[in-house]
Specification:
By secondary structure, the protein is an alpha/beta fold. It contains 15 helices and twelve strands.
Length: about 450
C-alpha cells in the first residue's frame, strides 16, 4: 500500500547499545514536532545542540529532559525523501531512543513501515527504483567489492545505462510507429539498413548490461558451491582447506561424512556458500543413503560443482559408483570443475596428464589451490572490474525477458509482421522501465521496499 501524506518516524540506527542513536522523521509535521521536542526555533541545515524533552505531563504540564544531543532540520524539497526531515542524534541506548520515538509518536507522527523513507524518496523523484535497492544492498554488503558496486548503483551508474537503452528503444518505437501510421507513402521505411543497425546496437548494448548485471549478482548474492565425489576422495579435506578451519571430520574410513557440512567464505570479493557432501557409493547403510540423496539434491541447486577424484585412483576400478555419479552430473556438466586431489602422493608425470582433464591439487602442500580458485571465478565470469552493477534477480529477469522480446521483434521485422514487431518492442520497453521504476505497480513496490529495514 502506498504511503499517505502524513509524518513518519523511526529509529534509524541499529538495535543495541551504541555511542550515538538517531530518530528520524519525515513529513509535514516534522518541524512542528521537532520544535516541541527541543523547545527551540530550528534553522534549516544547522546542527542545533539541545535538550530533547518528553511529552508534557498531562496533570502538571511540566517538561522533563529525555536526552541531550543534536537536532538537524532539512526542509523540502532538499532532503533525502523530498519532504521535511528531522534527525534527532542522541545517545545510543535502547531505552532512551524508544522514549524519544514514543514522544514524537505522541506528538502526531506514526511509526514508519520497512523502507518507507526510501519509498518516499522514490515517489518524490529523489531516487529511482534501482538506486533505492542499491541503498539496501550497500547496507547489507558483505565484501568490499559488493559495497563498491552498490555505491556505483546508488550514484546512478546502472540507472543511466538502463535509461540510455530505454531512450534508444523509444526512438526505435517512434520510428516504427510513425512508419506504420503512413502506409500510403511510397518509401518503405521499415525495410532499410537503418532498422537493422538500430536492432544491432540496442541488442549489443543490452548484452553488455546483462553481462555486468549477472556478474554483479554473483558479488551480491554469492555462489553456492557443492563438493561431490566418491568416499575418501578428499572432499572434506578440501572444504577445511578452503575454509581455513577444521569443520569436517577427516578419516581414512569411508562414509565419515553422512550429512551436509556447510560454511561461508569470501573468494576475492565473492561470497561462497560451500557444501561438503556424503561420498557417493553403493552398499551404504540407510543413514548414509540419506546423506547421498542430499548430495544429489545439492548438485541441482549449486552454481558450481567441484567433482573430486583421488588422483591415485583415477585408473582403478570403481565403475559402478563412478557411473552413478557421472549419470547425476551429466545434465550439469557446464557447472562442473573436475578436481584431482592428493597430488603430493602422485608422480609428476601423472600430474601433467591430469592437468589435461581438470585441476590437480594438494591440500597438504597447497599446490594447485590458487589455480582452483581462479577456475571457480572463471566459471562464473568474475572479474575485478569497477563498473559491475550490483544487480538483483529481478533486474536480470527483466533484462533477459527484454532481450527475448528484442530477438522476437527482429524475427517479426524480417517476416514483415510489423504490428507484431511494434508489440514486441513495446513489451521490451516496459520491461526495461520496470528496472528503474518508470513503469511500476503497487505490488512491485511493496515487494521491494518491504525487505528494507525500518528507518531506511
Amino acid at each position: 500500500m502506498l504511503p499517505d501524506n502524513d509524518t513518519i518516524a523511526a529509529i534509524s540506527t541499529a538495535p543495541g547499545m551504541g555511542a550515538i542513536g538517531i530518530v528520524r522523521l519525515s513529513g509535514p509535521l516534522s518541524l512542528s514536532i521537532a520544535e516541541q521536542v527541543t523547545q527551540k526555533k530550528l534553522s534549516p541545515r544547522v546542527a542545533c545542540y539541545t535538550e530533547f524533552y518528553e511529552t508534557p505531563d498531562n496533570i502538571t504540564g511540566t517538561l522533563s529532559v529525555l536526552d541531550k544531543g543534536l537536532c538537524l532540520y532539512f526542509p523540502n524539497p532538499y532532503s533525502f525523501t523530498g519532504e521535511d526531515i528531522i534527525e534527532f542524534q542522541g545517545h545510543g541506548g535502547t531505552i532512551v531512543l524508544n522514549q524519544l520515538l514514543k514522544t514524537v509518536l505522541n506528538l502526531g507522527a506514526r511509526l514508519a513501515t520497512p523502507g518507507e523513507f526510501s519509498l518516499r524518496a522514490f515517489l518524490n523523484n529523489k531516487i529511482d527504483l534501482a538506486q533505492a535497492e542499491a541503498i539496501s544492498d550497500l547496507i547489507s554488503a558483505k565484501t568490499t567489492q559488493a559495497a563498491r558496486s552498490a555505491v556505483q548503483s546508488l550514484q546512478g551508474v546502472f540507472s543511466k545505462e538502463i535509461l540510455a537503452l530505454h531512450e534508444k528503444l523509444i526512438h526505435l518505437r517512434v520510428y516504427i510507429e510513425a512508419s506504420l501510421d503512413f502506409p500510403e507513402e511510397e518509401i518503405d521505411f521499415l525495410s532499410g539498413k537503418e532498422i537493422w543497425e538500430k536492432f544491432e546496437h540496442i541488442e549489443s548494448t543490452l548484452d553488455k548490461i546483462l553481462d555486468k548485471s549477472i556478474r554483479g549478482k554473483v558479488i551480491n548474492q554469492g555462489l553456492s558451491l557443492a563438493i561431490i565425489g566418491l568416499p575418501n576422495a578428499g572432499k572434506s579435506s578440501l572444504l577445511n582447506c578452503l575454509a581455513e578451519e577444521e569443520l569436517a571430520i577427516v578419516t581414512d574410513i569411508p562414509g565419515t561424512t553422512r550429512d551436509l557440512v556447510k560454511t561461508h567464505i569470501h573468494l576475492d570479493g565473492i561470497p561462497l556458500h560451500l557444501v561438503d557432501t556424503a561420498g557417493i557409493r553403493t552398499g551404504a547403510d540407510i543413514i548414509e543413503q540419506e546423506g547421498i540423496a542430499r548430495a544429489f539434491a545439492e548438485i541441482e541447486k549449486s552454481d558450481v560443482i567441484l567433482w573430486i577424484t583421488d588422483s591415485q585412483k583415477v585408473n582403478l576400478s570403481h565403475e559402478q559408483d563412478d557411473q552413478i555419479l557421472l549419470d547425476k552430473l551429466t545434465p550439469y556438466l557446464n557447472k562442473v570443475i573436475r578436481v584431482f586431489s592428493k597430488t603430493d602422493l602422485t608422480y609428476p608425470q601423472d600430474i601433467q596428464l591430469l592437468e589435461q582433464k581438470g585441476v590437480p591439487v594438494s591440500v597438504r602442500t597447497g599446490e594447485g589451490l590458487e589455480g582452483l580458485k581462479q577456475k571457480i571465478k572463471n566459471k562464473v565470469g568474475f572479474t575485478q572490474e569497477e563498473d559491475i552493477f550490483l544487480a538483483r534477480t529481478r533486474h536480470i529477469e527483466s533484462l533477459t525477458q527484454a532481450k527475448k522480446e528484442l530477438v522476437q521483434a527482429r524475427a517479426e521485422w524480417q517476416a514483415r509482421r510489423h504490428e507484431c514487431l511494434a508489440e514486441c518492442l513495446k513489451r521490451s520497453h516496459m520491461l526495461l522501465g520496470e528496472i528503474v521504476g518508470v513503469f511500476s505497480t503497487e505490488d512491485l513496490l511493496g515487494n521491494i521496499f518491504s525487505s528494507f529495514c525500518i528507518g531506511k
